[in-house]
Amino acid sequence: xxxxxxxxxxxxxxxxxxxxxxxxxxxxxxxxxxxxxxxxxxxxxxxxxxxxxxxxxxxxxxxxxxxxxxxxxxxxxxxxxxxxxxxxxxxxxxxxxxxxxxxxxxxxxxxxxxxxxxxxxxxxxxxxxxxxxxxxxxxxxxxxxxxxxxx
Length: 151
Known about the structure:
With 151 residues, this protein is of the alpha/beta class. Helices cover 48% and strands 19% of the residues.
């Protein structure tokens, strides 16, 4: 399993310990879905302005958001080694705001956004209420198993 992390913003400090946490979340999501470890995931931290541009370009929504997921079709690339699962883009600014709003740490918010996005990369969505509940249950299992989320 390869998790390639890039901090492309300078507005919010991202502690190095967050990188290890992200890897644990990715691993737990793959484990929960009974996937192997032969995957590569890229995660990039950006600011609100950049995620707004990406959201507008790819989703035609002209506002910032907390996280974007770009799943890649497993069959799209025939590269030996790890299968490219997709890209996760997190707005560090929005994650920081949301952590304050919800009364928890930035690390916990990043862990949640990573889990949320991982399930998008693995084909889950939350457009319908029943889909949303399935996805939320999976996110909660990951957070609980890592001791990040309390009941």
